[in-house]
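Case study: Alpha-1,3-mannosyl-glycoprotein 4-beta-N-acetylglucosaminyltransferase A.
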Amino acid sequence: MEQSVAEMQTHLQFLDSLYRARLEDLLTLQNKVLASRCFNESHHHQPTSYSDTVTVTLTPELMTSLKNLSGTKTAQGVQPKNLQLFRTPFVFQLLPHLMNDPNSLRPSYHMKSGRVFVDVVIGVPTVKRDKESYLLITLTHLVNGLTEDDVNSTLIVVFVGETDLEYVVNTARQIEITFPKQVENGLIEVLSPSTSYYPDFDTLEKTLGDSMKRVKWRTKQNLDAIYLMSYAQTKGTFYLMLEDDVIAKKFYMQEIKLFTASTTVSTPNWFFIEYCQVGGIGKLFRSSDLIHFVTYVQLFYNNMPIDWLLESYLADRVCSIDKTAKACSKSKSTIRPKYKTSLFQHIGLYSSLKGKIQKVKDAHFGSVPTYYPHTNPPLESMKTDIVEQGDHTLKRAYEGQTYFWGIKPKKGDMIEFWFEKPTAIKSFTFRSSNVDHATDKFYDTVVEVLPAGTNNFTIVGSFDEFGLADGELKKDAGPFSAIRLRVQSDSFYWVILSEIEIMTHDGTKETR
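Here is what the predicted structure looks like once written out:
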């Protein structure tokens, strides 16, 4: 009886949050600017879709693709109509770049499910990954872990945090093909933001001593998280925060519902419940509480990653400045109950941050590759000053037979690839380290090319903090006689090249 009453109270809190949102709608209708805009559109006989949809540009290739997808849910998502704005207070003051476009908070794509007022909304943000995509594996586990009753009371929202509409549509189509029944019955929907939702990431302030690459990544991750939360808060009583590279325990939803009900009785003031203790995975919120956290993230979205913001928010709620760290930790535990075991397991090796390797293995999915072979342009010769280890030679690595492994590079050491004939390089990727030897990467090392007919190498890239060097070259910049890596300072570690990929303008190459 206590659990039933607690569940009813939580649902009433959710309905109250919806009521407050409707009041906001009434206030919005009184806005003079909007009234004037609506009058002008009516006066000029413009279609109402201008105020209800986002105008998106469709490439000829995408238009052809959409014609072939006529009648599918995927195609219907390209011009989402009558979709409410993502709703948070003070959003324009805290994210002023949104004022540059009246449609910045409207999605550019929405494959709708039509479901409202479900028990649990599961948020799954996804982006283009450097290597493997785990999204379909994740969705398979989420779908298979639901009972028939759970299916009818759950909504899975896949948020595609990309502005390439063709990629978004292809992702939606993959989902519809793989899960046709679940898309049709409304269990799964796909959402993607407008291009203008994101700020100019090159103007962000560097914080925490992080590189600009990491600052851009975590800032975008925060913005994606609050967009998804803001959309989900009106769809269901609870919101489950996940990532796109996890597997779920069988009947996970049943365990979540039972534990949440009992916890709400024993700890009614909980803020989120942890069903996995890794990062931002498996955190369950009351939807009525999301608006407070979303506003908090808006304040500090450029300062720290989302999992740190969760910890900071908890501390601000229950810790005072005179408390010790131990006392603060104890206080936080009172509003973040933890389930006895993890219902979700992280499986992703390659992070959504390009180049970053997350050393997580799962026996269920077999061994993790230690190198990635490619077919590269033919060479006249190759050479290196770095002492090779065993069979892990530069020649075998270039030919895709293994990875290159060398002993402690020194300042001035080179790895050189001389082409059989002058070659127009389209792009290059040199990935150092692998899952077994995460520290064996190039530090303080540049990539250089030698234009044909010259004697001077030019720097075109460098290895980042994750041991990745990649880049693109314009066709009129070449052709080139050689490409090389040049070490600029002594290293304390051995070095691995787990991927060597050189693509040319005059042809494509395939991964083996």
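For the exam, be able to explain this: The chain has a mean pLDDT of 83.
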